[in-house]
Amino acid sequence: MPSFLAVPPILARTHYTWVGNLSHSKIEMPKVKSSQSHASYNNSRKLEILETQRRKQWSNRKAAKHFGVAEGSIRKWKRVEEQLAAAPTSRKRLSGGGQKVKNPELDRTLIEWIDVQQREGVPVNGAMIKDEARRISGGDDSFKASNGWLGALKKRHGLRSTKRGKTGTLVCVVQQEPKDKSVEETSEVKTSQLHASYENSRKLEILETQRRRQWSNRKAAKHFGVAEGSIRKWKRVEEQLAAAPTSRKRLSGGGQKIKNPELDRTLIEWIDVQRREGVPVNGSMIKDEARRISGGDDSFKASNGWLGGLKKRHGLRSTKRGKTVSLFRVVPQGIEDSVHDTNEPIVWSVASCGVMVRATENVLGT
């Protein structure tokens, strides 16, 4: 191998720091702040954010950080607060907002045509709408009637696709709010409620708003789009929610119980021993060790799903080292801030009697 391709040796200096006793149930990875993603909020949520900001006398920056929104959004909502209060609470955008329709006359004619077909019992699908749009536009080469255009048309006018039989796709016209269009309102089919998870701070805000406005559980559930049973459940554990970390989505001890806690404890101790001896540990090794500990129990499969649950419970994360080795690391809760105060690669290890922190600084040989 040519000398210029040689890889310099890596010298490892290891520093040990005793952190103290922490239970396995409190082991978590530090949170890495990702780039802010765009999210849309309905008018009621925007007004709640502004109301909370005023009540707690927060600056725009602090409110934006607390609620996870852009600071510019806070300023924008303040400018149109009166319009937000007058608009329907479930809407996410004020009337007249967004990109303007290039050809409103085409939209109006198409909606009228769809309504006629619906009243006559003629199934209408996307291809038929695009063909009719091309016919109305008179062969205009600049108008493509693309799938993107069709999606925007359906979104603007509340059109929904409903499967009928095995082959037919019927587009249902749903008048969501009164509009100046000749569209007959049809009944909307209520779909099953989707499961959503909420942080403790959000649960407390919902309960506080319910009390302040003196709403029933049913009205609060409908307003916030949550299950009525969730409202009742949060009320029963409100004191625990207030005492728990605001960013958590579940109280300690919640969720499905571990079937074999002794297996978990033994495995975590084994992983720690391997790490202290410098032995790389990967998922296959953990599953093999789990099968050995279980003594050939046929009911225990040590599947990938089981491994994922183990890693999630104890904050184990896979870290690529080189090209083939995958290591696990465990980060204790309460000391994650120290990770951000150093530029050194950090490797955490769990012991049954406490938590041992091992910081390894890689120094290239010269």
TrEMBL record:
Record domain HTH CENPB-type: where = 94-163, 251-320
Q: Which Pfam families match?
A: BrkDBD (PF09607), HTH_Tnp_Tc5 (PF03221)
Question: What is a single molecular function from GO for this protein?
Answer: DNA binding
Read off the InterPro entries from this record: Brinker_DNA-bd, CenT-Element_Derived, Homeodomain-like_sf, HTH_CenpB_DNA-bd_dom
Q: Which UniProt keywords apply?
A: DNA-binding
Under the heading SUPFAM superfamilies, the entry gives: Homeodomain-like
One Gene Ontology cellular component term attached to this UniProt record is: nucleus
Q: What is this protein called?
A: TIGD2 protein
Q: Which organism is it from?
A: Branchiostoma lanceolatum
